[in-house]
Amino acid sequence: MRTNLAKVLKSRQAYFVTDHGKPVKAMIPYEVLLELLEMLEELKDKNLIQEVAQGRKEYQEGGWVPASRLKNKLS
């Protein structure tokens, strides 16, 4: 068990602990945890969520400009 735990702790993968086949715990790298917490904070920002939704809608409607063309316009 200790040998396996040492490998798990050094790994960059997520691991799930089960109890009788049911997941009860998750182990994820610290950096991943920080990213998830940041995403959760961003989800609390209603204005940001509205802007993302608007951007997705415009993209689906073809209201977008390729980055290469935008770069040329700004140069």
Task: Note down, in words, how this protein is organized.
The protein has 75 residues and is α+β, with helices and mostly antiparallel strands. It has one domain. Helices cover 61% and strands 15% of the residues. The protein has helices at 2-10, 30-43, 46-60, 67-74; strands spanning 15-19, 22-27. It has a two-stranded antiparallel sheet with strand order 1-2. A hairpin with a 2-residue loop joins β1 (15-19) and β2 (22-27). The radius of gyration is 21 Å and the shape is elongated. The model has no long low-confidence stretch (mean pLDDT 88).
Class of secondary structure makeup: alpha+beta
Low-pLDDT sequence parts:
none
Taken as a percent bin, the fraction of beta residues is 5-15%
- Average pLDDT works out at 88
Could you give the distance between the termini? 60 Å
Instruction: Please tell me how large the radius of gyration is.
Output: 21 Å
Task: Report the biggest beta sheet as strand number plus sense, adding barrel if it closes.
Answer: 2 strands, antiparallel
Q: Within the largest sheet, what's the order of strands?
A: 1-2
Number of domains: 1
Number of strands: 2
The residue fraction in helices comes out at 55-70%
Q: What best-fitting shape do the alpha-carbon axes yield?
A: elongated
Q: Total helix count?
A: 4
Run of helices and strands? HEEHHH
